[in-house]
Amino acid sequence: MKIVHTSDWQIGRTFSFVNDDALGALQAERLNVIERIGLLARAEGAAHVLVAGDVYEHETPSEHTLRQPMERMRQFADISWHLIPGNHDAHIPQGVWTRLLRDNAAPDNVKLHLDPAPVELDAAHNAWLLPAVLQRRHTLSDLTAYMDDAPTPEGALRIGVAHGSVVGFGNEDEAQNNPIAIDRAARAGLAYLALGDWHGYRQINERTVYSGTPEVDRFGTGGAGGGECVVVEFAGPTAPPRLSTHKTGRFIWRKFENVVLTSGADIEALENRVRAIAPEQPHTILAWLEVSGMLGVDDLALYESLIDRRLRSALTCLRLTGAPGLAAGEDDLDMLGTSGPVRASAAALLEQVNAGGAEAAVAQEALQRLFLLWGEVRRAAQ
Amino acid sequence: MILTDIQIEAVRRFASPIRVEGLGAGLNVLAAPNEAGKSTVLKALRAALTLKHGSKAQPFKDLLPYGGGSPHIGVAFTWNGQSCWLEKKFGNGNLARLDLGAERFDGEEAEERLQALFELEKINKYEAAGLWNALLVEQGESFAQPPLQGAGRASLQACLQQSLQGVTGTAEASAMLALVSKRLAQYQTATGKVSQRMRQVQEASEHAHALVATLVARREALHEDINGLEQTRRMLAESENPELRRQAEEKLVALRHKRDLLLGLAAQEQAAQAQLNATEQNLQHFQAEQERRQTRRADIARLEQALAETRLGQTELEHLAHDADQKLAQAQAGLGAASTRHQQARATLSRVRQRAAQVHNQQALAQERTAFERADAACARLEKAQATLRVMPVDAAFMRRLAKAVQGVQQAQARMQAQATRFVATLQADAAGTVWLNGQPCPLTPQSLTDVSELVVDGVGRFTISPPTQQSEALHTALATAQTALDDLLGEVGCHSADQAESQHEARRQAERAVEQASAECMALLNVPQASHIGSALDQQRQKLNEREALFAKEQAAQADLPVEDAAQLDEEQASRQEQDALMAEEAARQHERDVQSQHRVAHTRLEQALAQTVQQQQTLQRDQRELSVWVERDPDAALLARTSQSEQDRRHAQAELARIAQIRQQEEPLAVVEQGILRREQDMERVRDQVTRLSMDKMERETRIRQAEGDGLDEQLASAERHAEQLQGELAAWERERAALALLESTLLKAETTQTERYLAPLVQAMQPAFSALFRGVTLEVDTQFALTGLTRQRAEDIKDLSDGTREQIAVLVRLGFAELLHKRGAPAILVLDDALSFSDSQRLETLFDVLSDAATRLQIILLTCHAEQFTPLRGNMLSLRPMERFEVPR
Lengths: 382, 892
What we know:
The structure holds two protein chains of two kinds. Chain A is of the alpha/beta class. In chain A, 32% of the residues lie in helices and 23% in strands.
C-alpha cells in the first residue's frame, strides 16, 4: 500500500515583499501544485493522499479561495484526499471546515477528518487512519495521545496524521504549542505518523516524518527545504515504511546572506550565482540578497545596471537588503572636471560621507546620485 | 556692432514713416525737444529686438499709433563686417525678417536667429529678454541698476567665464542643478513642501492603514460573533431540552388537576353555604311571623281598654264647653257699649278743632290783603316814574354824540386859528378910537384874523388885511360843516345849546334813579328776582288772594249751617281729654272679651281632640283585628309552627356539610398557592419560548454576519491590506531617502554655484573699475552674486542706497556700460542706448562722464537721446535727427 504525504499548502497566503504580478503567480502556483501531487499519486499508484494540516492560510478565506483547492482535488476522483485541520485552519466554530461541510463544498473523494477517532481507509479493514484534530490555533496538549488507545482491528495498518511540533529534537520553543510526542508512533503502534507544520522535509524517525510544503513559501524554510512530497510505501502493519521524496515545487527561494561587494567582479559573480540556481528558468527564482561593501563610481553604476535592473527583471522576485556604499575618492572627483560647482559639490558631499555620523548616509546617497546625474548631463551635452 | 539705420512707421506718435538719420560708429547724440519722439525710437528699437511679430499682448498695444495702423520697424546694422537688416511689422500683416549678410530668415526662424544672436531668452509667449534689456535704457531706468535673470545672467556668466581661464563647469552645474531640481520636484515643491505625488502616496498609505484597522476591527467582530454564536447555540440547546420541557409540562398538568379539585370543593362549599343561608333565612322568617302575631294580639287588648277610658273623659269636656260659650256672649256685649261711647267723644273733639282753624284762617287772609295793597301802590309809583323817563330823550348815548360834535367844531376852529393872521395893535394913548378894525375899534389884545379885514385909521386911511388864502376856504367849509352837525344834533332833542342838553341829561338821570328805587321796592314786596316779573306777580297775587277769600267765605257759610251743641262750649283741651277716657274704657272691654274668647277656644279644642282620639282608637282597633284574622286565615298557627321546626333541621344539616368540606380542605394546599404555581410555570415556559425566539434571532443574525464575513474572505482582505500598507510604507521610506538625498544634492550644488559665481565677479569688477576710478577717485566696488553693485568704498564703505540720486544714476550707467564692455569683449553684439540720462549730474561729473563715454565709444556704439542739446554739445559725436520719409525703405 502506498500513500502520498503532504502538508502546509496554505492556500491564500500573501507575500508582502513581492510585487502584484509575482504575488499572483505565487498564489496560483500553490493551487497548481495540487495537480502535481495528484499526478504524483497516480504515477506512484497511491490511492490516498494525506494532507497533514494547514490546507488554508486563513481561518476565514473568501468563498473563491475556500473552494479552489476542493475543485482541484475533485479532478482526481480516483484518489482519496484526507485532510485534517492545522494551526492556520483549526477546526474552530464557523471555521473553514464547518463552512465546507455546511455548504457541501468538499467532493466525495475529499475526506475531512474532524473527529479524533480511527477511520477506515479501505474496505478490507486492513488500514486505518488516526487523525489528530486541532480545534484551536494553539493547544498545550498532545492531540495524538488518544492514538495510543484508539482501537483498530487486530493486525490492521495504523497510520497517524497530525499537525504540530514534535517535542525533543531541538525545537523546544516551538514545541510548546501543539506538541507531539516524539515516540508517538511507537507508543500508539503506528506504522507511520504523517506530520505537518514544518515547511521543509524532515524525518524525525523511521516512522515519523514532516513532509514540508509542496510549494516553497519562504526563504527560511527549515529542514531539508520544501517543495517536496513524501511517498510512503507499507509492506505490512509493523514493517518500517519505505520513504521517498519527490519534488513538486516550481519556485525556488534562495537567500544569500552577507554578500560583500568590493569590485565589478564581485557584482558579476553575484549575478552568476543567482542565475545559477535555475539557469534555464531564472523566472522561477526568488532571491533575497543581503548586500554590503564599497564600490567605486563605475562599479556602483555597474551594480545598478546588473543587479538592480537586469537581474531584478529576470527573476520573479529580487529582494535586496542593504546596498553597497560608494567608495569615491579624489581620483573619482576628477571625472567631474578639475574645477567647477559640480566637483565642488561632490567634494563637499564626500567630506560629509567621510565625516560619518547621521548625515553621512544621506550624503552618500546624494553623492551617488550626483555621479549618476553627472553621466546624464554629460551624455546630453554630447 | 553698429546701428546704421532705424526706420519707424505707425508707432505711437509716428503715424508716417520717419528715419533716424546720422547714425554711425562711436558716440551718437539725438538732441530734440520734449515729445519729439526720442523715447518712441528707443521703444521701437527694443520692440524690434525683444517682441515677437505675432504679439497681441500689452507691449504690442503700447506701440500702436494714435491714429491706428500696424507698427512697422526696420533696423540696419553691421555685424562681423556684414550688413544686416532686421524688420518687424506687428498687428495686421505682421512679419519678421532678419538678413545676416546674404542669409535671410523670415517669421519664426527670424525670431529664433535674432534671439540666438542677441542671447535672448523667451520670458513668455511673445517676449524675450536678456542682457540687452540692460543696454537699452529707457527714460527713468537709468537711476536703477539693471535686474538680471535667466538669459541676462547666462550672458554675463558666459562673458565672465570666457575671461576667467581655468574656471569651468558653470554650464554643467546649471544643467545638473536643473536636473536635480526637476527630480526633486517629484518629491517636494519649491518651498520645501511635500509634492502632490508624494502626498498622494502618503494619503494612500494612511488609507491603507485605516483599511487595515477597519479590517482588524471587523475580524475581531467576527471572532466575537463566532464565540457568541457558539454560546447562543449552547443556550438554545439548553432552552430547547425536551426532557426538561416534558418535566415542566407534567408538573403543570398535575398542578392544573389539583386546581380543578380545589375548585370543585369550593363549589360544594359554596352550595352548602347557600343552603345554610336559605335555611336560616326561612327560620328567621317563621319566627318573625310568630312574634308579629303575638304582638298584634297584645295591641288589640290595649286599644280596647284605652277606648273605654276616652269615652268617659269626653262627657266631662262637653259641659266645660257650654259654660265657655255663655261667658263669651257677655264679654262681647260689654265691648260694643264701650266702643259707642268712644265714637261720640271723637266727634266732639273734631268739631272743636274745626272752629279754631277757621279763626286762624281769617287772620291770615287779612294780613295778606294788607301786603298786597302795599305792593300795588309801589307798582303804581313805578309806572309813573317810567312814564316820566320816557319823555326825556337826552340820554348818555346822545351825550357822547354831542361831545363828539362839539369836539369837531373845536378842532375846525383850532385849525382855522392856526392859519389865521395874528394881529396885534399897540396904540398910543391918544390914538384910541382912531383906529378901527372891521369897523370896530381896534382891540388891543392880539387878534387872529381869519378873513379879509379892514383896518381904518382915521386920518390915515384904510388898510385891508388879507390872511393867507391858502386852505382858507376849506377851513371855513369844515368849520361850517361841524357847526351844522352840532346844530342838527341839538335840534333832535329840541335844545338850542349844549348847556341846555346837559341840563336835560341831568334831569333824565334823576328820573332813572326814581324808576330803579320803585322797581326795587316792587321786587322786594312781590318777592320776584327781576323787574320784568313785577306785573305778572302782582296779578297772580291778586288772583290767589281773591280765591282764598272766596273759599273762606264758603267755609264760613257751611259752618253757619251746623247745629249748635254742647261741644261748642268746650275748648279743644277738654274735648281731647274726654276722648282719651272713652278710648281707655273701650280698650279694657276689648281685653276682657279676648280672655273669654281664649278660654272658650281651649274648651272646644279639648273636646274636639277627645272626639278625634276616640275615632282613631276605634279605627286602629278595627284594622288590627282585621289583619290578624287575615293572617290566621291564610296561615294557621299550627302550620307555621311545623315549618319552623323543619327549617331548624335543615340548618343543622347544612352546617354539618360545611364542616365536612372544611376538614377536606385542611388536608390540601391553598388554591391561591396552586394557582400561583401554575402561573409561575406558565410564565417560565413562556420565558423559555421567548428566550428560544430571541436566541434564534441572535443565532440567525450572527450566522448572517459570519456568512457575510466568510464570503468577503476577511482574513485574506486583511492580509492583502497589510501587504499594501507595508508596500506603501516602504515606498514612502524609499521616496523620503531619495528626497533627502536630492535635497542635499541641490543645496550643495546651489552653494557651490554661488561660490563659483562669486569668483566670477572679480573680472566684472575689473571691467567696471577704470570707469568708476575715473569718476570716483580711489574707489573699490562691491558686487553681489546677482551682479548688482551693492556698495563702494571711497574714504569709507558706502551703501548704494544711501547715495544721492545723481550719484546712483552715474553708478547705474557705469554698470550698464561695464556690461556692454563685457559683451563687446566677448565678441557679442553690444551697444548702449541711454534715454534722457545723466540730467542730475553736476558739470564736473558730467565732463568726466563724457570722457568715460568717449573712451568707451572708441570700442562700441553709444547712442544718447536727450532734450538738453547744450549739455551734450561737448561730446562732439554724431548728431542725429528724425527725418520724415515718404515711405518705409527696405534696403536692397
